[in-house]
């Protein structure tokens, strides 16, 4: 079984396993492009939907029921269904109004729409995905959320071209202030939402996807300006897809890991795994184990581009 | 819009805009910016930015300042996009901001999502539905309605959380309000 692999990394293996067996509540994020948290709560009250507000992020509401999709505030694009812990990386990315921000693996857009709201729907947000079907879901989610600062592209993020943003006759390639690199992964940490998430697990798949993650993160570092921020996130536990990817990119590109605060209980990145030793700075990354905050599993790292 | 309904609405009914992608007529893969005024026009039939802002103001009373800071773009024929970011003049991407208006037809038609985003301050040709009517509207049903105003495309609203909120676009013809909520946006509200 997949989770046993990680027993040596967790402080309380029994609690870890038990948390992974419990389902997660249905959570929505209030979309502040279109409304305020107060009005969204009032609309849910009027509709008779019960909820509890997450203390670490005021926009997150844990619902009593499972069907926010058929409520008035959802129809108005005031709510976005999103797993609680997946709201973390946008917070770490911390985009500001007016900035240029890249979301290279964006579909179906939960983090894209969150970034847009944090930017007050100003500046330029580029949302890319290589899967056209998933991109169309992103487009309708973004339009329902009323997002207008968005450019949607359909490229392989491993060699994302800035050409679409280069004026004709110029070779200026405007770099980004920030990137949120939410790569495809083996999704081990989503087991509480998808009980069959581990059915197709194989080490070969983990290693193959790690190669893709590394190339996507490298390209994001290169397209971000010196001094800019790149956030790397996955919803998986495997160090091969997390610290090992950071270790490789630190060696290849001009960037360094930086410390960051989060309003959740986390553990530092691991520096050795299965006989491999990683750059000691990978400790600055943060692991969210499901039993720590009663959420899904997550991994998040913050990098600063140095040249 | 004063001589009474014309035949042309019949065909518009078949058309789907918005995000469900059932109506794609992309002659060009490139987004091209609308000219500021009619005098700057280089492409036959393309409306100016000024004409678009005037349309929202004249038809729905949407204050022109609502669109300050937005650029308007056409991709394919007649599909307009409103975008708040920076971009060069002709840009080859999948989407730029949101689809907000269908033009190059006699009666310009706003999208559901554009009305929700931009028409909160609309003051003309706005019809306010009660809760039961609003539910039928978002489920995609047509319904009989008494309305003394203009026929044609209306902003359809209801009361939610202490204020009037636009739901989308309805086509009012012959005493009937026809829901224009696109397939992918229809909902059976509890
Ligand atoms: C974890 S999901 C992204 C979830 C999204 N950020 C959100 O919050 O809704 C990873 C995405 O990466 C896309 N992807 C996989 N390989 C890619 C590649 N080489 N280039 C661009 N996107 C890729 C997948 O289609 C998938 O949509």
From TrEMBL, chain A:
Pfam families: Methyltr_RsmB-F, RsmF-B_ferredox. Transmembrane segments: none annotated. InterPro entries: MeTrfase_RsmB-F_NOP2_cat (IPR049560), MeTrfase_RsmB-F_NOP2_dom (IPR001678), Nop2p (IPR011023), RCMT (IPR023267), RsmB-like_ferredoxin (IPR054728), SAM-dependent_MTases_sf (IPR029063). SUPFAM superfamilies: S-adenosyl-L-methionine-dependent methyltransferases. It comes from the Archaea. Residues 16-306 form the SAM-dependent MTase RsmB/NOP-type domain. S-adenosyl-L-methionine binds at residues 105-111, 129, 156, 182. Gene3D superfamilies: Sun protein, domain 3 (3.30.70.1170), Vaccinia Virus protein VP39 (3.40.50.150). NCBIfam families: nop2p. This is RsmB/NOP family class I SAM-dependent RNA methyltransferase. It comes from Halomarina rubra.
Automatic annotation (TrEMBL), chain B:
Residues 1-45 are annotated as: Disordered. InterPro entries: DUF7122. Signal peptide: none annotated. Residues 22-97 form the DUF7122 domain. Residues 12-27, 33-45 have a biased composition (Basic and acidic residues). It comes from the Archaea. This is DUF7122 domain-containing protein. It comes from Halomarina rubra.
């Amino acid at each position: 079984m997949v989770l046993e692999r990680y027993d040596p990394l967790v402080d309380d293996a029994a609690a870890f396993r038990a948390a992974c067996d419990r389902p997660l509540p249905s959570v929505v994020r209030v979309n502040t492009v279109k409304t305020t948290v107060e009005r969204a709560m009032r609309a849910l009250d009027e509709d008779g939907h019960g909820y509890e507000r997450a203390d670490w992020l005021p926009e997150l509401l844990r619902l009593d029921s499972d069907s926010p999709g058929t409520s008035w505030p959802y129809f108005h694009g005031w709510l976005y269904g999103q797993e609680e812990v997946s709201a973390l990386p946008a917070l770490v990315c911390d985009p500001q109004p007016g900035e240029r921000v890249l979301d290279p693996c964006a579909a179906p857009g939960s983090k894209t729409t969150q970034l847009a709201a944090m930017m007050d729907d100003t500046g330029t947000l580029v949302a890319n995905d290589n899967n056209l079907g998933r991109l169309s879901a992103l487009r309708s989610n973004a339009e329902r959320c009323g997002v207008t600062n968005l450019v949607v592209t359909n490229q392989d993020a491993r060699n994302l071209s800035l050409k679409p943003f280069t004026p004709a006759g110029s070779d200026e390639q405007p770099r980004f202030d920030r990137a949120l690199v939410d790569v495809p992964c083996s999704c081990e940490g989503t087991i509480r939402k998808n009980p069959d998430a581990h059915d197709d697990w194989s080490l070969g798949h983990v290693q193959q996807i790690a190669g893709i993650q590394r190339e996507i993160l490298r390209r994001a570092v290169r397209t971000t300006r010196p001094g800019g921020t790149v956030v790397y996130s996955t919803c998986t536990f495997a160090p091969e897809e997390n610290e090992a990817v950071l270790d490789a990119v630190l060696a290849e590109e001009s960037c360094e890991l930086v410390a960051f605060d989060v309003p959740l209980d986390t553990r530092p990145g691991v520096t050795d795994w299965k006989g491999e030793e990683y750059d000691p700075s990978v400790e600055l990354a943060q692991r969210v184990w499901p039993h720590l905050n009663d959420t899904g599993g997550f991994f998040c790292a913050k990098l600063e581009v140095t040249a | 819009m004063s001589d009474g309904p014309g035949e042309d609405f019949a065909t518009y009914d078949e058309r789907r805009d918005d995000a469900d992608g059932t109506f794609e007529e992309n002659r060009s893969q490139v987004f091209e910016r609308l000219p500021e005024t009619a005098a700057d026009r280089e492409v036959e039939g393309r409306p100016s930015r000024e004409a678009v802002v005037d349309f929202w103001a004249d038809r729905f009373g949407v204050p022109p300042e609502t669109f300050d800071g937005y650029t308007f773009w056409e991709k394919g024929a007649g599909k307009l996009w409103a975008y708040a970011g920076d971009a060069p003049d002709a840009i080859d991407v999948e989407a730029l901001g949101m689809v907000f208006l269908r033009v190059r037809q006699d009666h310009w038609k706003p999208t559901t999502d554009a009305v929700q985003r931009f028409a909160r301050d609309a003051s003309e040709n706005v019809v306010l539905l009660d809760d039961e009517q609003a539910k039928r509207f978002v489920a995609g049903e047509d319904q009989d309605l008494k309305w003394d105003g203009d026929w044609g495309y209306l902003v359809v609203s209801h009361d939610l959380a202490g204020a009037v909120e636009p739901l989308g676009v309805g086509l009012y013809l012959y005493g009937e309000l026809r829901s224009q909520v696109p397939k992918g946006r229809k909902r059976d509200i509890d």
